[in-house]
Specification:
The chain contains four helices and 28 strands. By secondary structure, the chain is mainly beta.
Length: about 400
Amino acid sequence: MRRKYLLLPNFYAVIFFLFFSFVSEVFAADWYNSSWSFRKKITVQSGQVSSGPHTDFPMLVNLASDAQLAANAQADGDDILFTKSDGTTKLDHEIESYTAGTGALVAWVEVNSIDNGTVIYMYYGNSGAGNQENVTDTWNGNYVNVWHKKDLTTSSIKDSTINGNNGDKAAANEPIEADGKIGKAQSYSGSNYISLSSANLPVGNSSFTSSAWINLPNVNYGFSPIVCWGAQANNQANWTALVSSGKLTHVFYSNDLTGDTALSNNTWYYVAVTYDGTTRKLYLNGSEDKSADPSSTPAVNGTTLVMGMDSAFDWALTGKSDEVRVSDIARSAGWIATEYNNQYAPGSFYSLGSNENTFTWTGASSTDWNTAANWDVNAVPGAGHTAVIPDVSGGSNRFPVLGGATTVTN
């Protein structure tokens, strides 16, 4: 039933009740801005974060579909934003893809401190909002490069970091964009590559982390480069690849480390290599596969990075790679395990709450409807919100008083 109430001017001090059932004290996070009509709570599940908390962690929010987003968000997803658990502190995020018809979303959110049980909020439903992304700040200063591997053009891919090291393909659609582990990837034919020049690459004996998702039709094909930079000379290369035994390997050139686990064909794997200036570690699907100190000190040089071939262009990759990243620090084992958990099965990593758009009156400050402190989310309800007025006679005893000619519909 819909009822409209004409509320008289404030000198009549008319009191308006929506319903009288007693509601216990509500502990709701504040509302970011009443111009946003909806939000959903996202909670990291128990056991998903390894050795947390981790600082400035880029958390993947991957929704295959979402009816509320499809119905209420802007067609380009510009109004989608994320906040900390307080509901008001905005978090940096990047939207890799958004499909308006289904609400499918791939977004990366920089969570300032992530651990099991961490809560963030996703807001949407503001037709007048501009683009809420802050792409480069989503990736903290230790990220040298982040390539999601979808096409920027048919001849290039985008680096999401502040360094802006976009990659150039060997030619248009060489490699070609394809479905990836997360959104889109690049599919290499064994004769093409992506290259770029970067002055930010870790060189000398510097710490680093390189990582990627890979899926190859024949893991025993031969030396299969994933991400490489440095010269083809003793201790001067930094190459991550597979060898003919189908195992992960890292090459400082004549100073190599090969893992213990053989991969399978046509299967997505998360591979990572870390080096802290002393010890090199190989990771496969979030777990350490092998570690050792190099036999001699690396002296990596060069500013050309290549994906799909080594940086001397001698060997080539056949298969897909996705989410290639380079950092200038050695990421911890807990960080890498948490990345794998988040990216391998996002729906298990977090739970997604129901659509929220309810503002509940508390009368904590006064009787004024337009005072934010009188609402449980510390914001005054606006268009699209549901305002709930409980029986507060046993609590604050402050029922809302509305002044001026106001129309309320329930």
